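Re: beginner question about structure tokens

> Can someone show what the tokenized structure looks like for a real chain? I only ever see the sequence side.

Sure, here's an example I had lying around. Input first:
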Amino acid sequence: MAKRTDFAEKAKKATQEKGVKCPKCGAVKVPTLYVQSVRSAHGSYRFNRQRIHICKCNEKQLFA
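And the corresponding structure tokens:
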């Protein structure tokens, strides 16, 4: 039988920040979809999509 959670455990879990912390600045990394438009050989545009994690230390480099 599973252990029942009480209100104190629920409140403690709700205050915690979700995600991975950055080892440099200690902020929580936010997963973001980075879309880059690239011109193909045929002359049309393609969209390269990447999932990147943004924190305070690399925010200026990515959004500049």
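Each token stands for a local structural state, so reading them left to right follows the chain. The first strand starts at residue 30 and ends at 39.
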